[in-house]
Amino acid sequence: MGEDCLTISVWTPVRAGRKGEHGWHRGKKNEGFPVMMFIYGGGFQTGGENVPYQIPAQWVQRSQNLIVVSFNYRLNVFGFPNAAGLSEQNLGLLDQRLAVEWVRDNIAGFGGDPTRIILWGQSAGAMSVDFYNFAHYDDPIVEGLIMNSGSALVPLRSADTSHSNFSFVASQVGCGNQADAAAELACMRGVPAQTLEQFVGTYQGSGATPGITFAPIADGKVVFDNYTERALEGKLAKVPAIIGTNSEDGVPFAPYNPSGPNQTIAQQALLSLFFCPAVVTTRNRLAAGRTTYRYEYRGNFTNISPRPWMGAYHSAELPLLFGTHPNYRGNSTPFEYAVSAAMQDAWQAFARDPNGGLATQDWPAYTGPGGAVRIFGADGTVAQTRDLSVLEAMCNGVPAIAS
């Protein structure tokens, strides 16, 4: 469920902390470095800063012109308790806002530019980025957004309006039969965190019924139930965004088969959970006049995809972005290194200048069906621009997309 306390980690170029005769070296023309803040995924259930493939040291070392920040946020019952006695339920998302504010106030001390912060996330982290986009549209602090395989329209919400999940956990750890919600909450606050984590983790993994889950819930403050409407009203940050998916994002969400997943199920998972929410999110942004860049990752590399049928599975792009792809299962091919460099350079160009940086990468803004989508790692080509309107048309009427 993540670390036991809230922490922030900052990776800086070597020269960011070296003082010369003209002051701190912070980049070209003595400016601060652009800052990429990463929000990890994990379905709002698990995750942390110490996932090996998601350590950005090698990327920062290669770049020498970028700062990458990672931080943890409360998850599962700690981050999204949905307790009747609380006035705030989406605590993990509030942690994320606090982290952005901390970086704004402190990153200059690490050589960073507080006016060039990009908020970037993958999966639940990408959902978080979009939640943030709508919740803090009038004071976003950040200058750009990147959403890898996720947006606010992904149908992952708590529907537990009766607060039954929290009360069930309370009943199992000695806090049942309390006089009221306030007493229940007070009792739960006295239960050791390790006890709660062990019970919830064991119970969720056992397949027992009733099932329990703790996830973001619409509260009208940081999570909403009418994102399309809010987009059309202009209630989203006036900053550019990169939005994309992986071609096999749905594979981990189909029943496991050592010979490969049921392709029909995997394709439906791709469309309903990732690709179509990205399409609708992009359409909403276009209607609101927000600049958006679209991508799809299609790399299939054996040292990070142990089975060839996994392809560009959910999160497979992260080792290439973080530069960790050669670390654990054998060295990478020259083509894999080239795709990694192309993606890193594009993300960094966007961080340097969200409004025009991607023009240096031959990546045009998306203009609608038939518009340009940047494809990474497909058919032996490092990066290319394609029209995905045929695939996008499959999203018309997909019922699982949240509003």
Automatic annotation (TrEMBL):
Gene3D superfamilies xrefs: alpha/beta hydrolase (3.40.50.1820)
EC number: 3.1.1.-
Source organism: Coniosporium apollinis
Any Pfam family matching the protein: COesterase
UniProt keyword terms in alphabetical order: Hydrolase
Protein name: Carboxylic ester hydrolase
Domain Carboxylesterase type B: 2-261, 272-367
The family this protein is said to belong to: Belongs to the type-B carboxylesterase/lipase family.
PROSITE patterns named in the record: CARBOXYLESTERASE_B_1, CARBOXYLESTERASE_B_2
